[in-house]
Fold:
Amino acid sequence: MFLDASPAAGLTRRGILAWLAAGIGVPALARAPNSLLVASWAEGGQYRAGLLQMDEARVSVLAQLPLPTRAHGLALEADGAVLVAARRPGDWLLRWRPDSGAAQWHWVDDDRRLNGHVLPSADRRAVWTTETNQADAAGLIGVRDPRTLEKTGEWATQGMDPHEMLVLPEALGRVPAGALLVANGGIPTQSETGRSHRDLSRMDPSLVALDPASGALLGQWRLDDPRLSVRHLAWDPVGRRVGIALQAEHDDEAARRDAPLLATWDGSALRAAPPMAQARGYGADICARAGGGFWLSATRANALLGLDARGAIAERVNLPSAGALAARPGHAWAAGAAVTWHDGERQALSAALQLDNHWVSARA
Amino acid sequence: MRTRSRWRLGAALALLLCAPGALWAQAAAPYYYPPDAVAALYRDHTAPLARALAEQAPRLVQALQGHCAGPAALAPARAAWTQTALAWERLAAVAVGPLIERRSLREIDFQPLRPELLKRSLAREPKTLDDMERVGTPAKGLPAIEYLLWSAPAAPRSSACAYAVLAAQAVQREAEALRAAFDALAAAPPEEEAAVTAFVEFINQWLGGLERLRWAGMEKPLREAETRGAEPAFARLPSGQTGAAWAAGWAELRALARQPDNGAPAIGAGRVSIESYLRGRGHIALADRWRATVDEADRAMQGVQPGAPVSVDAAARTLKRLTTLMQSEVAGSLEVNLGFSSADGD
Structure:
């Protein structure tokens, strides 16, 4: 979710700007000072991915593509193409070029299912996807040819239910810069029962760091509470730590209701924030917050939480069904039901357009 | 149980007293509880369908043994495969209980078949069922036998023919295990909390079965073919049984979704459909819409032809409406939390 000033991210924005300048059917955008976000959503029973423009008062759709099923994670490539992964258990991967409208589909027909997140490697030699082996529910990173999206290899994530990935932008503890961090959600599933969570007593969430060239395990960290599923990741360049959005899976309703939605990792330890009263156990997305710390969407609490570097709630913004988050240095965007939020301002969003859990900032 | 009976009587009286006259007939469905629905599911649905599969599977083994012993007798073997596959489709349409625990869908019907893996497995010439245990699921089960009967017919006395017999024996063994497990469930269905869990599983797996038919069976091959510029690779194409397989699965999904024309069954007297359960609980308007949506899907499924993508697309769209109605309204009225297609993004 976080587009920092890394070469890859800079190229991504340049790529987007290049095709905007080249004219994509919406040439005025190349000059517009507004926010651009790549997102997926449902509208009138149809799932779509597309490019949204956010001005001071409203959000409008600039370009879009129908999807066969619900999407989940998105990522920008250096040339402005958008990668979209099907929601877990997913069986398609899409590369969409908003400039030409060209779509490159990749269908998963082996004994694997996508877990909803996709990420191009920093050196552009691979596209990574989080996946599950349906035979034994083991977590995998699918290593894919960046041109064809065909699988060229697989790495074990040393856990179940791997979800979002993040390339560590700088060395932290003994983990080198460029390491691939993977959130193993740890929730047991079975192909016959789709998305259903099974036998939660076997939950084993963890954060792992993998060598980005070989997939070798560099480290693995667990929280004390195995019922906190680690799912989404963001880098805080000020606090120099990774924030992890959590989802609580406790049997006890009160434990779920007040569970912490944030954990942080500083390169040596993974720590859960203090309990969050009435946060209702579901952190949908996370991104960096200006000045340090994180924004975290607490969907079931209808709130956007501003968290300091230690995980304490510094700010609480009412945002119905808060979900997708994106950030660039000094700026943040959040999506809710019929409304979006950008640096403290609200914009109207068509109620018919139900944004999914993630979006990516292309330009501010 | 006594408490449940009191609640049942009270709820039924309240329902009848509140129902306008014209709705009396429809509202006459009993007030079912999860143990009623689950007991009926196991007794009147899964157990007879598992028995039918277990009766059919040995016939496939015998027909293949006859063909493999020579002289060639492909036609009876193909007919036996077809009957076994359709019996399987009916049982697996709503995969509950032992079908999940035993992972029978993978064991009997892994899709799609991996022809290259099958060729490598054939080259190893397994001799016993224990040898077959070491063969990967993508190279055995009904799809592998279909391949050896249609795509590359195994000649009598060939090692491929012996492989087909072993694969059929493995299907027979799994079918027999399913029959025993579902008979046991029918004889002693779960009660109280365990029944609620089983009911939640039933509704989730009904939806999962519908989505397996709609998306994995029909729409995904269609969309994939569109993007690849190829013909849709539907399951059961080699045998020409794609349409029959869809019809068999849909018939069972429909039977568990729609109340029979002669009304809701008394408790203990037949399968409790989702519609009947809704009516029994007083969700009359929703039950009417659900029934109409099922009927709309049924009409589309009656007209579907795998060779006519437009008809497949149309049928898949009507099935999607059923999925949407289940997710948006019906599951909530059944007091079931959907795990299969949870509204949560992840």
Summary: The first helix of chain B runs from residue 2 to 18. Residues 20-25 of chain B have pLDDT under 50 and may be disordered.
